[in-house]
Amino acid sequence: REEGEKNNWKVFIPALEYCTDNAAMIAITAYFKYQKEMFVSQNTSPLPRMEWE
Fold first, then answer.
1. Which among 8, 26, 37, 50 is most buried, taking Cβ atoms within 10 Å?
2. Phi/psi at 18 (nearest 5 deg)?
3. Along the chain (53 residues), what's the average pLDDT of each consecutive run of 10 residues?
4. Cα(5)–Cα(21) distance, rounded to whole angstroms?
5. What angle do CA 25, 47, 30 make, to 5 degrees?
């Protein structure tokens, strides 16, 4: 915040409750997919910039 004021930047800092990582969401999604036996091949490559429709 101080650095932003020194540089005349608009600084937006969300509440701490919105700044945690999403590991819990990823874990619960994996759990449900595991329960439904929704597996992919070991040869599957990640798509970090996958487009959504």
1. 26
2. -100, 5
3. 89 84 86 94 83 72
4. 27
5. 30
